[in-house]
Write a structure and sequence with these properties.
There is one protein chain. The chain is of the alpha/beta class. The protein has helices spanning 8-16, 52-64, 80-92, 119-133, 152-164, 178-187; strands spanning 21-23, 30-32, 36-37, 69-71, 97-102, 104-106, 113-115, 138-143, 168-174, 190-194. It has a single domain (8-194), classed as NADP-dependent oxidoreductase domain (TIM Barrel, Alpha-Beta Barrel), CATH 3.20.20. It contains 6 helices and 10 strands. Helix 4 (119-133) packs across helix 5 and helix 5 (152-164) crosses helix 6. It is globular, with a radius of gyration of 17 Å.
Amino acid sequence: MSTTEPTGAKGARQALGSMPSRRLGSDGPTVSAIGVGCIGLTGGFYGDDVDEQTAIHALHRALDVGCTFLDTSDAYGPYTNERLLAKVLSGRRDEIVLATKFGITVDPATMRRSVDGRPEHVRTSCEASLRRLGVDHIDVYFAHRVDPTIPIEETVGAMAELVQQGKVGHLGLCEAGAQTVRRAHAVHPLVAVQTE
């Protein structure tokens, strides 16, 4: 009998057992029951920044133990979090259910935040995220905040066009109330609502 421990992703899964999974919504993707919220890896949101190599190692380790759901946003950094994830995605895209968000805009000079749910912003944000992430599609695309100046139907209508174009697989909202979720879902099915 060998006393050698298994190595690599397969070995980690064998040693730790398989991660339970969950389906998002009634027709959404299947994800690991525990996912990785990547906000803390860049931008100092929850304290000091993590150095890049440590962050990349942590993401690979999470994937090795079966965490398949990675969640980021264009606002994290801003933009640096998506660029960091691109370094992990390039070799392991088929293992990952990728979620990112749009809608919180950050003025780089002042770091002041605002919300933008205009349809044209939905489209340009998606294109920019695809480029930064180095992927051809996003599995779950979230409106990071609801823009009170734009009807949610317009924002989600533009998001639904991205689904039709194959750039996005599924839709979600963040920090939204029940009525807003119902109105959005009537335009296009949502698979997730995210609240911090």
